[in-house]
Write a structure and sequence with these properties.
The protein is mainly β. The protein has helices spanning 123-128, 312-323; strands spanning 5-8, 14-16, 19-24, 26-30, 34-40, 51-62, 70-75, 78-86, 89-93, 98-101, 106-110, 115-121, 130-140, 151-155, 162-166, 173-180, 182-183, 186-187, 196-203, 208-212, 222-229, 231-234, 237-239, 242-244, 249-252, 255-259, 272-278, 287-294, 302-304, 307-309. The strands form 7 sheets. An 8-stranded mixed beta sheet has the order 1-15-16-19-28-21-26-3, with no helix packed on it. The N and C termini lie far apart (43 Å). 42% of the residues are buried.
């Protein structure tokens, strides 16, 4: 993976948040019949405001023409984020957008008032088969933005900011892909409809991360971490540069680690609220995690399949509009 800019983390004026709970992922069948690991929505947790869903596909080997993809389907009232780790996918939507996503690619689609889209393997990747891995994340839109004009953002890995960071006093390094929001002083290129952060970290054995919540939201910011691979320690105590592992919780692949909204102590002027996570010195593999954080919308949610609105009446209108053809058509589906 690309090294990116090298930085040393600054932690001198931060108080860390403890871990509140850890959610286990379930296995679900999606799209044309592929399986995903999903920590939410489930019976245990329906959403992690402002995030509505996290699906982790793979890593899994599919033989030639085995991976079914996700045939044409509608969306309204939220945003979908596709992040490819391995394999190739081709996207079509009713707004006329078509794009091929390869490893490291990010597609951020604001469904807004409604789109049809499909995602599936490219002809080349379908023919050859191979390892497929990626993420589908749904981000809620506020009531005022649910019916906004759909928007499509498509970024190759070369355009996504990347960093290699180290913790003071440690030689082990951390790689981070800044998909949305900011990390260690580096801003993403993706525009979001509400303040959020979406970050992919890969920690070598012995590496540690202190990620600070944006100061303007330090006491109103949900923060969670999905463990993609490896085993990590989460919620170590850090205050003004002093650290202790006494309160750390272990998280394994498939876990979704939820941090408390506060640091458990009153923050002084200029102090930062932070989350801490690390890979053990004697770990046998790298720790790969997705940090998901943002300001909660705190609005009513009505959801049914591919539609997420604020009331049941709005959901029923979604189905009526879809049946009436108001979501348009995908040119790739139109014959003649």
């Amino acid at each position: 993976m690309p090294v990116g800019e090298r930085k040393v983390q600054e932690i001198t004026n931060a108080i860390s948040r403890p871990v509140q709970s850890i959610i286990k992922s379930g296995t679900f069948t999606e799209g044309g019949g592929f399986q995903v690991k999903r920590p939410f929505p489930t019976r245990e947790m329906m959403q992690f405001d402002p995030f509505l869903m996290l699906d982790h596909l793979g890593p899994k080997y599919y033989g030639p023409y085995e991976f079914p993809g996700a045939p044409t389907h509608p969306h309204r009232g939220f945003e979908t984020v596709s992040y490819i780790i391995s394999g190739e996918s081709v996207h079509h939507d009713s707004g006329g957008h078509t794009g091929i996503m390869k490893p490291g690619w990010v597609q951020w689609m604001t469904a807004g008032s409604g789109v049809l889209h499909s995602e599936g393997p490219t002809e080349e990747s379908a023919k050859s088969g191979g390892i497929v891995e990626g993420y589908q994340i749904w981000v809620n839109l506020s009531k005022e933005k649910k019916m906004k004009t759909p928007k499509y953002q498509d970024y190759s890995p070369e355009k996504i900011p990347k960093l290699t960071v180290s913790y003071p006093g440690r030689t082990a390094t951390v790689w981070v892909n800044v998909i949305a929001g900011s990390a260690h002083g580096t801003e993403s290129v993706i525009t979001t409809e509400s303040p959020i952060a979406l970050l992919h970290y890969v920690l070598k054995p012995g590496a540690k991360v202190v990620w600070t919540v944006p100061s303007e939201f330090r006491e109103n910011w949900n923060t969670g971490i999905y463990v993609s691979a490896g085993t990590g320690l989460f919620g170590e105590s850090v205050q003004d540069g002093l650290e202790s592992a006494n309160n750390a919780k272990k998280g394994i692949a498939g876990d979704f680690v939820i941090y408390s909204k506060t640091s458990g102590a009153s923050l002084l002027e200029g102090q930062e609220s932070a989350i801490v996570f690390s890979n053990a010195d004697d770990a046998s593999e790298e720790l790969s995690v997705i940090v998901m954080a943002g300001v909660p919308l705190d609005q009513p949610i009505a959801r049914r399949g591919p539609f997420v609105m604020n009331t049941e009446e709005e959901i029923m209108q979604c189905f009526k509009d879809y049946s009436a053809g108001k979501f348009g058509k995908i040119k790739a589906d139109v014959v003649g």
